[in-house]
């Protein structure tokens, strides 16, 4: 990350779309139940450490974030946000589980519906002087925001409703932490 990007983030007005930390414990079951973590892949110890570090890096770099942090209803995304920002600062939004569904076998109209909704969400500007944080899932290659590594972050500049958005940068957790002195 270069210093001009850090300055932009400190001024706010961006969306930080982050993928959850490493999830290697268990697997997503065919009968996946969002209320039952046992039916899902969950954070590994590495993933938990990544989540804690992600929150610490944003605070250390003095990147302002608006609360609540928006999360997908999967156990791994909720735990990531909770470890990074605290339980009281998160809000579960069922829409973000749709991103997970993009990796499945969807019809073209269903995929378009999800991507159109994604665009609408990413066009909404955050509160002035702060950044909105969304913790959800990666995307299949070439779809939506594309592949995102564990705890990777896509920096998005919303252009206002109906005007689209611009991807400013895609950062790994190591990229993001490169500014911590």
From TrEMBL:
Where does the secretion signal sit in this chain? none
Give the domain of life.
Bacteria
The cross-references to InterPro entries, in alphabetical order and at most eight, read:
His_Pase_superF_clade-1, His_PPase_superfam
Q: Which CDD domains match?
A: HP_PGM_like (cd07067)
Q: Which Gene3D superfamilies match?
A: Phosphoglycerate mutase-like
Name this protein carries in UniProt:
Histidine phosphatase family protein
């Amino acid at each position: 990350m270069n210093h001009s990007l850090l300055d932009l983030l400190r001024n706010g007005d961006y969306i930080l779309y982050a993928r959850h930390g490493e999830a290697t414990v268990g697997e997503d079951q065919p009968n996946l139940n969002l209320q039952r973590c046992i039916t899902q892949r969950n954070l590994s110890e590495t993933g938990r450490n990544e989540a804690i570090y992600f929150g610490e890096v944003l605070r250390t770099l003095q990147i302002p974030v608006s609360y609540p942090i928006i999360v997908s209803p999967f156990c791994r995304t909720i735990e990531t946000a909770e470890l990074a920002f605290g339980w009281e600062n998160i809000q579960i939004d069922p829409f973000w589980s749709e991103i997970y569904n993009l990796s499945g076998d969807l019809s073209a109209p269903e995929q378009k519906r999800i991507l159109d909704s994604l665009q609408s969400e990413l066009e909404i500007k955050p509160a002035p002087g702060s950044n909105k944080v969304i913790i959800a899932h990666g995307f299949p290659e070439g779809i939506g925001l594309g592949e995102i590594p564990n705890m990777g972050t896509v920096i998005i500049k919303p252009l206002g409703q109906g005007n689209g958005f611009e991807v400013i940068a895609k950062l790994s957790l190591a990229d993001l932490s490169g500014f911590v002195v």
